[in-house]
Amino acid sequence: MRALSEISVAQLRHFIPGSQHTRSRVIPVQDAVPSGRPPLATLALVAVNVIVFAVPGMAGPLPPALAAVVGDTTLVHLVVSLWFLWLFGDNVEARTGRLPAILIYVACGWLAVYVSSAWGAPPRQGIGVAGGVTGILGAYFLLMPHSRVLMLVPLPPALVEAPAMFFLGFWWVLQLLRFVVAPAAARVLADGGVIWALAAAMLLGALVCRVTRRPVIWH
Q: Which residue, 50, 134, 141, 154, shows the most beta carbons closer than 10 Å to its own?
């Protein structure tokens, strides 16, 4: 495997699926900042999402606040959402604590559901999960706006670093494609509420993180 190298945002166009510049597919592996502790809260959120998606009726026994923000519509959507949660949730958990990290996810998911409904957007299953992950991203980029993400290039095998901010933009592109572009044109205006819902979730995630984050202790 080649040595670790850095890659700029401009160079990332070579790795965007569907781009005429695409040379190879890349797989984001982890962010470049070690969390320093087992991400038990993040693992718990991932596990609950997977169980609710895989086992019909599992959302029923859960508290309403949690049932609204777990599970998703398709396996692809679930995998993408949980991959982003796994990439960035561990550092948020390490800096805020396990309970605050869960609070950020659940509160931001609920806020996204509420804002979307209040705006008059058509019901969208999965908006709670998207809101929860977006809140975690908001917290992460408040903590580490200049962080980088390790990516695996399969052929030839190599590890490269890319700005974590690129993945924030990529997350928003995915949500636009899912909730706004994909629906029928007649519903796009109402679906604009989904964008405001996710923006509110990101802001809330950053605000809660600002209150609950722990100071960094340098050894």
A: 134
Q: Render pLDDT for 7-17 as a digit per residue (tens, 0 to 9).
A: 444 444 444 44
Asked if residue 93 belongs to a domain, the reply is: yes
Q: Rounded mean pLDDT of the chain?
A: 79
Residue 25 pLDDT greater than 80, yes or no? no
> In this structure, what CATH number is given to the domain that contains residue 61?
1.20.1540.10
For 99-112, what is the mean pLDDT? 95
The count of structural domains within the chain is 1
pTM of the model: 0.80
The answer as to whether 135 is a domain residue is yes
Give residue 83's domain range.
Answer: 37-147+164-212
Q: Does residue 49 lie within any of the structural domains?
A: yes
Question: Which residue is listed with tokens 């796009």?
Answer: 188
**SS3 labels along the chain:** CEEEEECCCHHHHHHCCCCCCCCCCCEEEEECCCCCCCCHHHHHHHHHHHHHHHCCCCCCCCCHHHHCCCCCCCHHHHHHHHHHHHHHHHHHHHHHCHHHHHHHHHHHHHHHHHHHHHHCCCCCCCHHHHHHHHHHHHHHHHHCCCCEEEEEECCCCEEEEEEHHHHHHHHHHHHHHHHHHCCCHHHHHHHHHHHHHHHHHHHHHHHHHHHHCCCCCCC
State yes or no: pLDDT of 192 exceeds 80.
no
